[in-house]
Amino acid sequence: MGLALAAFGVVVPGVLDFFLTRAGAPGLGVIVWTVGFGSAVVALWYVVLRPLDIGAETEG
User: Fold this and answer.
1) What is the 8-class DSSP label of residue 48?
2) Cα–Cα distance for residue pair 16/23, rounded to 1 Å
3) Per-residue pLDDT for 48 more than 80?
4) pLDDT interval class at 31 (50, 70, 90)
């Protein structure tokens, strides 16, 4: 799931950025790419990294 989310978070904003830039709106393309990529990073953290119990003390 994490790999699909990462690919989706990079490919879709990148393609939208490309088409918006070609349509004459490069500033909007940069905004779309930044928000899309940033959202993918936050989603990856929430889905993959947050549930990991790294460095927690073990009982015993």
Assistant:
1) I
2) 10
3) yes
4) very high
